[in-house]
Write a structure and sequence with these properties.
Elements lengths: L5 E17 L8 E15 L8 E11 L10 E4 L4 H33 L24 H9 L18 E10 L3 H9 L1 H8 L6 E2 L6 E4 L4 E9 L3 E8 L8 E9 L4 E11 L3 H20 L7
Antiparallel strand pairs: 1-2, 2-3, 3-4, 5-11, 6-7, 7-8, 8-9, 9-10, 10-11
Helix pairs in contact: 3-4
Length: 301
C-alpha cells in the first residue's frame, strides 16, 4: 500500500483520572503518581481527493512511578475502517508515541522538581539563632553535617539544628503468609532487602546492632539499634525530606501464628506533616512489595 502523507493533531485531553502525591522540597523522595489518560486526535490526508477528517483516540493506561515515561503504553485507535483511516492511524503509531512520551517525561520531571518545592522547609523564624549564622532555611553548618554523614551515618547523635517540629506516632499490624524466619530474613538479609526495594549498587543494609541502612536511593536511611533474631528489630529511621538529622524510633515485633506471621510496627517521632506519607510508604514500599516479591501474600501451605 502506498502511504499517503497526512497531518494529525491531538485536539484535547478527554480523560485524565488518577492522582499524584508529592511531599518533598526538592523531589527524588517518596513520590507517587498514577494516571490513566485519553487524548482525542484528528487528521486528514494531504494531496488526496478525500478531504474527510478522521478522528481517533490515544490511550495511556499506565502512567505511574512504576514505569519510566519511555516504557508507558501508548495505544492508538481510529474511528473508521477505510484505507485512508488506517493510513492516518499508521502515521500516528509511527510518529505520536515518541512525542507523547517526551511530553510525559517533561511533565514528570516538572512534577518532581517544581510542584514539591517549599512543602516542608522550616522558616527562618523557626530556626534557633544559635544553630545558624546564615539567612537560609537550613544552616550551612547543618548542611555540612548532612553531607559529611552520607558515608558515615550516625543517627544516634541527635544534634539539634534549632528546628522545632511537631511529631506523631505510627502503629500498624500486618499479616504475612510465611514463617517468621522468612519474614525476618526479608527485613534483614541484604540480598532479600535488595530484591523487595529494587535496590541498586548504592543500597546499604548492615543488619547488626549499630549497622546502618540506606534504601530507595538514599530516601530512607538510619541505623539498626537492636536485633533479636525472628522476634524484634529496633531502628532509628528517617526519610530524606525530613528536617536535617531528625530520626524516628521504630520497633518491629514478629510473632508466628498457626498459618501466618504477624508483624507489629510502632514508630514514634514522625513529623506530623509526613504522617500519611510515612504510613503509605510502609504499606506500599515495604509490606506490599515484600508480599509481591516473595509471595508472602499467598496462603501458607
Amino acid at each position: 500500500m502506498v502511504f499517503l502523507p497526512g497531518r494529525c493533531e491531538i485536539k484535547e485531553t478527554s480523560k485524565l483520572e488518577g492522582e499524584a502525591t508529592a511531599n518533598n522540597r526538592k523531589a527524588k523522595l517518596i513520590f507517587f503518581y498514577e494516571f490513566e489518560i485519553e487524548l482525542d486526535w484528528e487528521g486528514s490526508l494531504k494531496n488526496s481527493e478525500n478531504k474527510t477528517v478522521y478522528k481517533g483516540k490515544v490511550t495511556i493506561p499506565n502512567l505511574s512511578e512504576e514505569h519510566d515515561a519511555s516504557d508507558v503504553d501508548v495505544d492508538i485507535t481510529v474511528n473508521g475502517e477505510s484505507n485512508d483511516a488506517y493510513a492516518l492511524k499508521d502515521l500516528m503509531r509511527k510518529k505520536a508515541p515518541a512525542l507523547i512520551r517526551a511530553k510525559l517525561d517533561a511533565y514528570i520531571r516538572q512534577l518532581r522538581e517544581e510542584f514539591t518545592q517549599g512543602m516542608i522547609l522550616p522558616t527562618k523564624s523557626e530556626t534557633d539563632s544559635t544553630a545558624t549564622k546564615e539567612d537560609a532555611d537550613v544552616s550551612a553548618a547543618a548542611k555540612a553535617k548532612v553531607a559529611g554523614k552520607q558515608n558515615g551515618l550516625s543517627p544516634t547523635k541527635k544534634e539539634s539544628v534549632g528546628v522545632k517540629i511537631p511529631t506523631t506516632a505510627v502503629a500498624m499490624t500486618v499479616e504475612f503468609k510465611c514463617r517468621v524466619s522468612e519474614l525476618y530474613m526479608a527485613l534483614t538479609d541484604k540480598n532479600m532487602v535488595r530484591a523487595f526495594t529494587r535496590g541498586g549498587a548504592n543500597m546499604v543494609c548492615e543488619a547488626e546492632n549499630g549497622g546502618r541502612f540506606s534504601l530507595f536511593d538514599g530516601n530512607v536511611t538510619g541505623q539498626f539499634v537492636e536485633l533479636i533474631a525472628c522476634q524484634q528489630i529496633k531502628m532509628q529511621w528517617r526519610l530524606r525530606q525530613w528536617p536535617a538529622e531528625h530520626y524516628s524510633d521504630v520497633t518491629i515485633e514478629l510473632t508466628e501464628k498457626e498459618d501466618h506471621t504477624l508483624l507489629k510496627l510502632n514508630q514514634t517521632g514522625v513529623p506530623q506533616n509526613f504522617l500519611d506519607n510515612t504510613k503509605d510508604g510502609w504499606y506500599r514500599f515495604y509490606w506490599e512489595s515484600i508480599k509481591q516479591t516473595f509471595g508472602f501474600g499467598a496462603r501458607l501451605l
